[in-house]
Amino acid sequence: QVQLVESGGGLVQPGGSLRLSCVASGSIFSIYAMGWYRQAPGKQRDLVARITSGGSTNYADSVKGRFTISRDNIKNTVYLQMNSLKPEDTAVYYCNAHRSSIVYEYEYWGQGTQVTVSS
Fold first, then answer.
1. Which of 3, 9, 50, 54 could form a disulfide with 113 if both were Cys (CB 3.0 to 4.6 A apart)?
2. Pairwise CA distance, residues 116 & 113, whole Å
3. To 5 degrees, how large is the angle CA 19–CA 23–CA 26?
4. What letters, b where the CB count within 10 A reaches 16 and e where it falls short, cover 23-37?
5. For the segment 51-108, what is each residue's pLDDT rounded down to a tens digit?
């Protein structure tokens, strides 16, 4: 079992920056792939960025060049640095932990943190 707690959301003006953090507890953090997803009102939850246990990353096209995901396996924390924020980045951002093999799959979600980009 993994518990995930996000923080760092808030209200920011267009062009501004925020850094989201997600602290994990309850299991071996380093073996999980970690991701950030977001869900805007009336829309589905979509992947924003993902980092594997080995440190490989991938991003949604809409955030490439603006967002950076990173992890600190000592602090059991994954970060999402968001720069050049746009109103369309407004959403609830969720942290995700995922681990799978051919015989099992484990997936956990945080409670979400609101990001609002508005002037």
1. 9
2. 10
3. 165
4. bbeebebeebbbbbb
5. 999 999 999 999 999 999 999 999 999 999 999 999 999 999 999 999 988 998 999 9
